[in-house]
Design goal:
By secondary structure, this protein is of the alpha/beta class. The chain has a single domain, classed as Metallo-dependent phosphatases (Purple Acid Phosphatase, chain A, domain 2), CATH 3.60.21.10. It is built from 9 helices and 10 strands. The chain has a 5-stranded mixed β-sheet with strand order 3-2-1-9-10, with helices on one face. A 5-stranded mixed β-sheet has the order 4-5-6-8-7, with no helix packed on it. The two termini are 23 Å apart.
Length: 238
C-alpha cells in the first residue's frame, strides 16, 4: 500500500476529472466538508486535477464554482490544468477549424452549449461570448503542484526526468510510458508518489509510485476524491 507522511495535522483532498458534472462536484465538496467534520484536520488542502469541462452538461457551472476563492471556505485550494482546458485555450488562441474539431471530438460541444453558444458559431467569436472571468481562470491554471511526498499533475510525468524538465504535453497527455512504469518516477524525489487523473478506470488505482483517480465521471462513473494524510489513502466518491 501507499503511505506518505505529511506535516502533522495536514490532509490533502485530491479530486479527479469532473468533466462538466457540476452536480457531482458540489456533492463531492459536501462530502469533503462532512469528512472534515467527522475527522478534523488542522491543515486541510484541496486540489483539483484538471478536466473540469467537456462531456458533461454543466461545464460553465463547474468553472464558476471553482473560480470562487476557495470553493470550500477555510480550505486552501489549487486547481490544475487538464488537457481539455488546454484544447479549449488552444482553439481560442489559435482559431482554426482543426483546433475546434479536436475539441469537439472530445466533448467541447457540450461546453459551448453550457455557455449558451450555438455549435455553429465561428471559433473567432467564442472569446467574446465566454465569461471573461472564466477565461482568466483557465489561463491561470498551473500544471503541477508538490505537497509533502506527493506530486499532483493531470496526466502524469515522463519517468526519469526531473519535474522542472517535464514538458507541458507530457503533464497533460502522457499515458503508457507513465502508467506502465513500476519504479521511481522523479530522480530528485525517488520516493514521491504522483497523484493524477486523465486515464479513466472503474476504480481508483493505487500503486507504489502513483495514485490514479479518474473514475470516468464524464461517462457515468463516480467522481472520486483521494484523501491523503498520515495513514493509508482513503477515497470519497459521489
Amino acid at each position: 500500500m501507499v503511505t506518505r507522511r505529511l506535516p502533522p495535522g495536514a490532509r490533502i483532498y485530491a479530486v479527479g476529472d469532473v468533466h462538466g458534472h457540476a452536480d457531482k462536484l458540489i456533492a463531492l465538496h459536501d462530502a469533503i466538508r462532512a469528512d472534515l467534520k467527522r475527522r478534523p484536520a488542522g491543515s486541510p488542502f484541496l486540489i483539483h486535477l484538471g478536466d473540469y469541462i467537456d462531456r458533461g452538461p454543466n461545464s460553465a457551472g463547474c468553472l464558476a464554482l471553482l473560480a470562487q476563492t476557495p470553493p470550500i471556505p477555510g480550505v486552501p485550494t489549487i486547481n490544475l490544468m487538464g488537457n481539455h482546458e488546454w484544447m479549449l485555450l488552444t482553439a481560442l488562441d489559435r482559431p482554426s477549424a482543426a483546433a475546434a474539431e479536436l475539441w469537439f471530438e472530445n466533448g467541447g460541444d457540450m461546453t459551448l452549449e453550457s455557455w449558451g453558444i450555438p455549435i455553429g458559431t465561428p471559433v473567432q467569436r467564442w472569446r467574446e461570448m465566454i465569461p471573461t472571468a472564466q477565461i482568466a481562470f483557465l489561463r491561470g491554471l498551473p500544471l503541477n503542484h508538490v505537497l509533502g511526498g506527493y506530486v499532483f499533475v493531470h496526466a502524469g510525468v515522463r519517468p526519469g526526468l526531473a519535474l522542472a524538465e517535464q514538458t507541458r504535453m507530457d503533464m497533460l497527455w502522457i499515458r503508457d510510458e507513465f502508467l506502465d512504469w513500476d519504479g521511481p518516477l522523479l530522480p530528485e524525489a525517488p520516493d514521491s508518489v504522483v497523484v493524477h487523473g486523465h486515464t479513466p478506470t472503474y476504480v481508483p488505482v493505487l500503486r507504489p509510485n502513483r495514485i490514479g483517480i479518474d473514475t470516468n465521471a464524464g461517462r457515468g462513473g463516480p467522481l472520486t476524491c483521494a484523501v491523503l494524510d498520515d495513514g493509508e489513502p482513503r477515497f470519497l466518491q459521489v
